[in-house]
Automatic annotation (TrEMBL), chain A:
This is A-type ATP synthase subunit B. It comes from Methanospirillum stamsii. Residues 7-72 form the ATPase F1/V1/A1 complex alpha/beta subunit N-terminal domain. Transmembrane segments: none annotated. The keyword Iron does not apply. It is a peripheral membrane protein. The lineage of its organism: Archaea, Methanobacteriati, Methanobacteriota, Stenosarchaea group, Methanomicrobia. GO terms for cellular component: plasma membrane.
TrEMBL record, chain B:
It comes from Methanospirillum stamsii. This is A-type ATP synthase subunit A. Residues 313-342 form the Rhodanese domain. Belongs to the ATPase alpha/beta chains family. It is found in: Cell membrane; Endomembrane system. CDD domains: ATP-synt_V_A-type_alpha_C, V_A-ATPase_A. It catalyses: ATP + H2O + 4 H(+)(in) = ADP + phosphate + 5 H(+)(out). GO terms for molecular function: ATP binding; proton-transporting ATP synthase activity, rotational mechanism; proton-transporting ATPase activity, rotational mechanism.
Length: 460, 582
């Protein structure tokens, strides 16, 4: 392989190389420093005159004396069944002292789009044991449902609780977890790893770690390695894979950094104009395929800068993912765990996986009614702050009380409390019974007759 | 240009935009890029540099690889076989792609838009000696339950029929020849960026009945009209578009998933074949053409997808059909333009969008309309575009530029969707500019009472908004009796009439008669309530009227007539009792 020493410019994570033979777009590049260290990069722009290489590590030490080798192929990743149980770096190198991965295949990490015709519809209910997810924002196999959180909030605990409790009732198929950390702290890493070891999850997991002090640009490939692994496990080996990507905010920051180094015209708040497309190339790598056994379910975590859901990172994510679970600071301050605010939360695939034959026939309508009641109660809190409780009508006081109960009994649950969907539904009805029946306009009469505690008691 | 150089070489590759040299080309020529012959389109010519957007992933392509100009513009194949198809942005059938390359979309595979082997039964409707001209319908093919009308293509010169066949043919077989030598097959191609011709545009004065109460009732759209549905993520753009695709009384539906989710397209694919058109009882899929260029498919093909869609829509319009086209989401299309434009290093306009954003948007919506076709039939294309403003902020360029063009604005509101008030269309901000032109239709076809009822409902809702401001300061109990009743009536309008559950088998579609009956029942309550108040009945008794509690349930009942009549009667007798007691 030819080695060039024709670097003309280094700017941030970018290296400009001149006078090369034709080099392919997106080709993998090896850079050999004067002291023999090797670094990797990828071609972002190629022409007769100049080739722009994005380096996945710091460019410290790169200079005119650095040798550049173009490998002639795009970035591929070795995958194999023995990856399960392994801990790898954010660039895919073993980090646990174990041997290199014995490749059964080498796969392109960019990953092609699943043909929409080939997709199967995700409708298998995953019970997480958390009421605010199972009942009101149901997760199904093959869904991409991120957690929108803020710094210092217990999103990791929630993600771990989901990973620990998640099950498809009545199924014992093979499952695996692919965990990719991007720029998380050592402390967070310990939290995840300790938990994986405690529960024995590590055996079924592949872990990619890019920590806060690892190179930021490496974060561009970490999730792609993770998703390539997940697709391999799911669609070639038949596993049901849960992918946890954390923290997507760090990923986006790395993207912004590269855009700035390329002197691109920035989009909203300095993030690249193509961030939507780029994020889609990650988030869309979830789903199920007709006629194949496995599935890829994505649970990414992102921290909203300034708790602002309109910030480009949560905003563009929410436009791509199939809903979002929003973790809320006020609920956290009230000491409620898990502090999930159901109002801005959403599961778009919920309707496919619930109801008769899936969970229970009253599921959707109970959920709608709980939402409506809670929303009304929360609104009234604002009013109470101005006019006092006494100025409220009796109806309004009822909803105010309902909102309190909803937070304290329905939202709040233990870190190890694993509620079945029936338990969550019954809990929902137990709260609804305090609302006058004629105000339950979201539920049809037959369901009320069948499930409302008032009638059930009579029937029993 | 002297010698036509149809083969050039690549000079630069940067993402979906590549540069070729030593090539003669015109704008929008389709070219084959690289050793793998990826499909691309010329989008800029700058001196010797021919700049090309490539519809497939360009990874691994090197400078020096060949580029070949086909000399043709990006076109779609139009003929029998379009219905029930699902295409990518450049009309490659996704089903065929799965057969050719498996579950993932790899590159370098071509697939024609229509099957060239399949035979269709062609029945002529003209005969030898007849004079025909562009747009004349010369025969028919029973494609699905829809009759596909075979036309003289717009670019063929008028002439007399020399020969016309009848029987089973492929779309390439010549089925008709004219005395001027023109040969006509069932399929012709049309360049997507050029609107198909028609005789004249007509005033849109017939509503597109959508079965959605808030739309038909408050903010109706006309056949051949334009509408935008802007809203933040999760507010209901897609569900609304899908509801319109399912239930609106168009004869043909073109649904474009432009830069959105893969699973949403799968949902349409699995759901539509099982649903029936409420008018014809036939599977909805049979009148539908889908275009799916999801967010992770190449952006250049995303840019092309809306043109592919609208050209197919115009083609069915030219047969004399009422077509409705949904584009979800036009913002992703605009972003594709932005992405390509920034790779071209063009001067960015507002928020990085190219300066021609407004022009492209209006050219697109301009292709909507109710027309007199070349064949002198009536046909229409209604265009409904979702808009996805960043952060839900309607002041951004795509929303603003769209608003200047479209005639219906259905503003989605996160506040409403968060409390699961669906469709989360804000009744105070939304509008329809078709109200006047459509009022005659409602008068004649629904009821003379319809227009006044609508006005009344709108007034109550507006009044409620004013009252809510006062309630926010003093609480609802402090309002005078009459206004408390207004609040109650407005609540009924919101909860019973405006809210509509797209996932309830019955409520998802509500015909005009049922809409009318529901509104009338609420108005009945309202009239009785004010009258009762005058005779001294207490407000709490009026708002607590038992019989009205059954009204919301009407939505979920298919044969609702006896029930709603019962409820109205019960309300009446309850009011009578109250008045007598007072
Ligand atoms: N008319 C409706 N009836 C019931 N639910 C709805 C309706 N419209 C939207 N929803 C709910 O809102 C969610 C988000 O709607 P969607 O159309 O996907 O939003 P958007 O396209 O604006 O992001 C849906 O998954 C569904 O749960
Ligand atoms: Mg949508």
């Amino acid at each position: 392989m030819k080695e060039y020493r024709t670097i003309s410019q280094v700017a941030g994570p970018l290296v400009f190389v001149e006078k090369t033979e034709p080099v392919g777009y997106q080709e993998l590049v090896n850079l050999v420093l004067a002291d023999g260290t090797e670094k990797r990069g990828q071609v972002l722009d190629t022409s007769d005159e100049i080739v722009v290489v994005q380096v996945f590590e710091t460019t410290t030490g790169i200079g005119k004396d650095t040798g550049v080798r173009f490998t002639g192929e795009t970035i591929k990743m070795p995958v194999g069944k023995d990856m399960l149980g392994r801990i790898l770096s954010g660039a895919g190198k073993p980090k646990d002292g174990g041997p290199d991965i014995v490749p059964e295949k080498r796969l392109e990490i960019t990953g092609a789009a699943i043909n929409p015709w080939a997709r199967g519809s995700p409708r298998q209910f995953i019970q997480t044991g958390i009421s605010t997810i199972d009942l009101t924002n149901t997760l199904v196999r093959g869904q991409k449902l991120p957690i929108f959180s803020g710094s210092g909030l217990p999103h990791n605990e929630i993600a771990l609780q989901i990973a620990r409790q998640a099950k498809v009732p009545g199924s014992d198929e093979e499952f695996a977890v692919v965990f990719a950390a991007m720029g998380i702290t050592k402390e967070e890493e310990n939290q995840f790893m300790a938990e994986f070891e405690r529960t024995g999850a590590l055996e079924h997991a592949v872990v990619f770690l890019n920590l806060a002090d690892d190179p930021a640009v490496e974060r561009i490939i970490t999730p792609r390695l993770a998703l390539t692994t997940a697709e391999y496990l799911a669609f070639e080996l038949g596993y049901h894979v849960l992918v946890i990507l954390t923290d997507m905010t760090n990923y986006c920051e790395a993207l912004r950094q590269i855009g700035a180094a390329r002197e691109e015209v920035p989009g909203r708040r300095g993030y690249p104009g193509y961030m939507y497309t780029d994020l889609a190339s990650l988030y869309e790598r979830a789903g199920i395929i007709k006629g194949k056994k496995g599935s890829v379910t994505q649970l990414s975590i992102l921290t909203m800068p300034g708790d602002d859901i309109t910030h480009p990172i949560p905003d563009l994510s929410g436009y791509i993912t199939e809903g979002q679970i929003v973790v809320n600071r006020d609920l956290h301050r009230k000491g409620i765990y898990p502090p999930i605010n159901v109002l801005p939360s959403l599961s778009r695939l919920m309707n496919l996986g619930i109801g008769k034959g899936f969970t229970r026939e009253d599921h959707k309508k109970v959920s709608d009614q709980l939402y409506a009641g809670y929303a009304e109660g929360v609104d009234l809190r604002g009013l109470v702050a101005i006019v006092g409780k006494d100025a409220l009508s009796e109806r309004d006081r009822g909803f105010l009380e309902f909102a309190e109960m909803f937070e304290n009994r329905f939202v709040r649950q233990g870190k190890d409390e694993d509620r079945t969907i029936d338990e969550s539904l019954d809990l929902g009805w137990d709260l609804l019974k305090d609302i006058p029946e004629e105000q339950l306009v979201r539920i049809d009469r037959e369901l009320i007759q069948k499930y409302h505690p008032k009638y059930r008691k009579k029937a029993e | 240009m002297e010698v036509k150089r149809t083969k050039g070489v690549l000079k630069r590759i940067a993402g979906p935009v590549v540069t070729a040299v030593n090539l003669d080309a015109h704008m929008y020529d389709v070219v084959k890029v690289g050793d793998e012959q990826l499909m691309g389109e010329v989008i800029k010519i700058k001196g010797e540099d021919i700049i090309i957007q490539v519809y497939e992933d360009t990874s691994g392509i090197k400078p020096g690889e060949p580029v070949e100009n086909t000399g043709l513009s990006l076109s779609v194949e139009l003929g029998p076989g379009l219905l029930t198809s699902i295409y990518d942005g450049i009309q490659r059938p996704l089903e065929v792609l799965v057969e050719k390359m498996g579950d993932f979309i790899e590159r370098g595979v071509t697939a024609p838009g229509l099957s060239h082997d399949k035979k269709w039964d062609f029945k002529p409707v003209v005969k030898t000696g007849d004079m025909v001209s562009p747009g004349t319908i010369i025969g028919e093919v029973q494609e699905t339950n829809i009759l596909h009308k075979v036309m003289v293509p717009p670019n063929v010169e008028a002439g007399k029929i020399k020969e016309i066949k009848s029987g089973s043919f492929t779309i390439d077989d010549i089925i008709c020849t004219l005395d001027n030598g023109a040969e006509i097959a069932m399929m012709h191609k049309w360049p997507v960026r050029i609107p198909r011709p028609f005789t004249e545009k007509l005033n849109p004065d017939i509503p597109l009945i959508t079965g959605q109460r808030i739309l038909d009732g408050l903010f109706p759209i006309a056949k051949g009209g334009t509408a935008a549905i802007p809203g933040p993520f999760g507010s209901g753009k897609t569900v609304t578009q899908q509801a319109l695709a399912k239930w609106s009384d168009a004869e043909i539906v073109v649904y474009i998933g432009c830069g959105e989710r893969g699973n949403e397209m799968t949902e349409v694919l699995t759901e539509f074949p099982e649903l029936e058109d409420p008018k014809t009882g036939k599977p909805l899929m049979e009148r539908t053409v889908l275009i799916a260029n999801t967010s992770n498919m190449p952006v250049a093909a995303r840019e092309a997808s809306v043109y592919t869609g609208i050209t197919i829509a115009e083609y069915f319009r030219d047969m004399g059909y009422d077509v409705s086209l949904m584009a979800d989401s036009t913002s992703r299309w605009a972003e594709a333009m932005r992405e390509i434009s920034s790779r071209l290093e063009e001067m960015p306009g507002e928020e990085g969008y190219p300066a021609y954003l407004a022009a492209r948007l209006s050219e697109f919506y301009e292709r909507a309309g109710r027309v007199h076709t070349l064949n002198k039939d009536y046909g229409s294309v209604t265009v409904i575009g979702a808009v996805s403003p960043p952060g839900g902020d309607f002041s951004e360029p795509v929303t603003q530029n769209t608003l200047r063009i479209v005639k219906c604005f259905w503003a989605l509101d996160a506040k409403l969707s968060q409390r699961r008030h669906f469709p989360a269309i804000n009744w105070l901000n939304s509008y329809s500019l078709y109200l006047d032109t459509l009022s005659q239709y409602y008068d004649e076809k629904v009821s003379p009472e319809w227009n006044p009822l609508r006005t009344w409902a709108m007034e109550v809702l507006q009044k409620e908004a004013e009252l809510q401001e006062i309630v926010q300061l003093v609480g609802s109990d402090a309002l005078p009796d009459e206004e408390q009743i207004t609040i109650e009536v407005a609540r009924m309008l919101r909860e019973i009439f405006l809210q509509q559950n797209a996932f309830d088998a019955v409520d998802t579609y509500c015909d005009m008669t049922k809409q009318f009956d529901i509104l009338k029942a609420i108005k009945f309550y309202s009239d009785q309530a004010y009258a009762a108040l005058k005779t001294g009945v207490m407000t709490a008794q009026i708002t607590g009227l038992k019989a009205k509690n059954d009204l919301p349930q009407i939505k979920y009942v298919k044969e609702y007539k006896p029930e709603i009549e019962g409820i109205v009667k019960a309300m009446e007798s309850e009011f009578t009792k109250l008045r007598e007691a007072a």
